[in-house]
Amino acid sequence: MRRLGSVQQKIPCVFLTDVKEEASRKREHQLFQVVATENVNPVVLEANIDCAFATEKLDGTCCYVALYQGQPYLWARLDRKPNKQAEKRFKKHQHTHKNYKDFSWNVEEDFKTVPETWIPAHRVKHHNGHPIPDQLGHIPGWVPVEKSNRQYCWHSSVVDYEVGAALVLQPTCDDEDMLEITAVPLADLQEQTLELIGTSVNGNPYGLGSKKQPVHCLVPHGSIQIRNPPPVNFQQLCSWFQESSEGRVEGIVWHCNDGTLIKIHRHHLGLRWPDGETCLADRPVVIRFEGTIDIYSSSKGLLSSFFPLNGHRFSRLQDVEYEL
């Protein structure tokens, strides 16, 4: 499988965007919407998007695999955000100047505390040894997923550090239409970012599992290809999302040859998400545990739940269950 760009920071939209002062369709309590204009972002032309690899933008929460205490670990996304006073100053500056530029942050005093284990994401700029906030006033970063932290219980359910493996959803090597749920060594996922999707993540747009039998898994970023992406044209993209069977996705992420990532999602275009059955949820899937599979029978979390189903096929991802 082609290994593509790691998602460490906010990805620019394929079109230049504008801010509308109306309630967001994507985020609760956000009183503005970021919408796409019909003007192509100059970044797109510089990165030669026509030669890019188009993949499905997944609706979950971003994760990262990297070393922690000497072993490969799953890390959860945790952006460091400003405290109430600093956020109030920042919003006042934005309203007065109609931009975020020239705002002066005091990183030591203006931001909420984070765990000692927190690290800033790659490519976050630093000044005098301190990470600098992005245009939203956030400092993207990561925190290791430790079993004792109940806040990340759904992250924990898809990894077993004793076995050193994670439960991963990805395309099969022998059938481009078929997906597989499999155990992948965390060492093989190092320095990759993945999307945690499932029952208790972001309203579960893919219809996975149930409250009684929750299903979660990690999907490597860039692994779900969009085979016939539309041209980068506002009207054609709108039509594709609404009329194409492949368009039943939250969005597209283009992986350009120079490493640039560019995206579009339905909310940029004023379109609903989810809107009926999703493309990913409708794909067939096989449970596949290979290699020294005996270790998974005594594993913890979802690895042990799916191990007995090795070789079992489901006609749709949303039909997956582990107690048959």
Automatic annotation (TrEMBL):
Alphabetized UniProt keyword annotations: ATP-binding, Ligase, Nucleotide-binding, RNA repair
Record's catalysed reaction(s): ATP + (ribonucleotide)n-3'-hydroxyl + 5'-phospho-(ribonucleotide)m = (ribonucleotide)n+m + AMP + diphosphate
Record-listed E.C. numbers: 6.5.1.3
Cofactor(s) annotated in UniProt: Mn(2+); Mg(2+)
Enzyme class: ligase
UniProt xrefs under InterPro entries: RLIG1
Job description of the protein: Functions as an RNA ligase, in vitro. The ligation reaction entails three nucleotidyl transfer steps. In the first step, the RNA ligase reacts with ATP in the absence of nucleic acid to form a covalent ligase-AMP intermediate and release pyrophosphate. In step 2, the ligase-AMP binds to the nucleic acid and transfers the adenylate to the 5'-PO4 terminus to form an adenylylated intermediate. In step 3, the RNA ligase directs the attack of the 3'-OH on the 5'-phosphoanhydride linkage, resulting in a repaired 3'-5' phosphodiester and release of AMP.
UniProt cross-references to PANTHER family, sorted A to Z: CHROMOSOME 28 C12ORF29 HOMOLOG, RNA LIGASE 1
Protein name: RNA ligase 1
